[in-house]
Amino acid sequence: MAQLDTREKLAILADAAKYDASCASSGTAKRNSRDGKGIGSTEGMGICHAYAPDGRCISLLKILLTNSCIFDCHYCINRKSSNVRRARFTADEVVRLTLSFYKRNYIEGLFLSSGIIGSSNYTMEQLVEVARSLREDHDFRGYIHLKTIPDADPELVHKAGLYADRVSINVELPTSGGLKRLAPEKSEARIEGAMGDMKSAIVETGDATKRFKSAPRFAPAGQSTQMIVGADAATDGDIVRKASTLYDRFGLRRVYYSAFSPIPDASAVLPLQRPPLMREHRLYQSDWLMRFYDYQPAEVVAAADPATGMLPLDIDPKLAWALRFREHFPVDVNRAPRERLLRVPGLGVKAVDRIVAARRWRRLRLDDVARLTVSIAKVRPFVIAEDWRPVALTDRAELKPLVAPRPKAQQMELFG
Question: What are the residue boundaries of the Elp3/MiaA/NifB-like radical SAM core domain, all occurrences included (predicted)?
């Protein structure tokens, strides 16, 4: 293989990293270098949340250490049998790139993942060495997110948490059957074991820092994971239940969803077409309902089609749930508790909090609610206000056409 320069390696390994969705930079500890010591910051102008049109964060230098891999996961573009151009950075090259990009104000942190080279332990050692060198040799105080390798020695994975702000351990697929079929070299037990160890270390270190100021911080931004959507036969209901279990068992900050994308020379066991990107979006919305709107997993699953287990693509899960369980509506905006107002389609957390605060002083009218939402048409059938009671709307057998967004006009082909 011809020797590649740094620019060529960066082009290959930055492109290969685009399939990693879990690169948000929120939730870390506050650090800065305003006192003239160290390099970088995670506050103020430090981590800037710039997002690409597809929703992925681009404020970090997001690369793979290498796209070579000894594993042969069917869904992965970098699998062992894939016919892609390979490249590899040394740990020192990644350190120099990160510092150089930061000093030029291109990035505010590092997101580093890798294919498996040599062995899981060897690869994990290289990832940890990058973070160690940045922190100890260069006093880098910016954001670092490391993708860890569950098969690696637990001590190496633990070291990653000492240097990184956030660590990720990917569950890959939502079902154990899908993982065995598409990634037979990976083990659900080992993945979840590593996530459990990481959770324990985060909790123990958190307790220590409360008692001792000198206690080292450990993954202050927590851990996250990623699931591939559409590569196996898992339904949206399966994915929602799996995500809820992961949140409960491992205290994850985020579960990220990545729609499967067909790859060159794909295995015959993979779907021929990618799932709709809207499916990924609906799963993020369902995740939001569980995290911020107090929906139980079973309630989100109830919004899916009973026959297919899939969430509707034309309306969001919250509206789908409200249409399926109309007996819970309308809700009186002047009397209902906060948890019931959160169930109203079109009302977000901020809008509900403002309603609860405002009604302490006066009775709210429909116009008052309209000022807090983008679409009062979506809200109107589900609320009662001082001057509004949706009698006619409530009695309609088919309410969906009135509240569902209108489909966007599409350009037809000239030669169909």
Answer: 59-286
38 contacts 139 by C-beta, under 8 angstroms: yes
- Domains (ranges, CATH) in the chain? 6-275 (3.20.20.70), 325-403 (no CATH)
Residue 222 CA to residue 340 CA, distance in Å, equals 31
- Contacts of 392-396 spanning 24+ positions with Cβ under 8 A: 394/326, 394/329, 394/330
Question: Taking a C-beta distance cutoff of 8 angstroms, is the pair 313, 286 a contact?
Answer: no
How many Å is the Cα radius of gyration of the chain?
24
Residuewise pLDDT in 10s, the chain (416 residues): 468 888 888 888 888 887 777 656 555 555 566 666 666 555 443 344 444 445 544 478 888 999 999 999 888 888 888 888 999 999 999 999 999 988 888 888 899 999 999 899 999 999 999 999 999 999 998 889 999 999 999 999 999 999 999 999 999 999 999 999 999 999 999 999 999 999 999 999 888 877 777 777 899 889 999 999 999 999 999 999 999 999 999 999 999 998 888 777 667 778 878 888 899 999 999 999 999 999 999 999 999 999 999 999 999 999 999 999 999 999 999 999 999 999 999 999 999 999 999 999 999 999 999 998 888 888 999 999 999 998 766 556 577 777 777 666 555 554 44
- Residues near 377 by Cβ (< 8 Å), separated by ≥ 6? 402, 403
CB 19 within 8 A of CB 62: no
Q: Is 186:179 a contact under the CB 8 Å cutoff?
A: yes
pTM for this model (two decimals): 0.85
- Entry field: residues in the chain: 416
Which helix (H) or strand (E) covers residue 239, if one does? helix 236-250
Spell out the residues 6+ positions from residue 41 whose beta carbon is closer than 8 angstroms to its own.
31, 32, 33, 34, 47, 108, 141, 142
Beta bridge partners of 223: 167
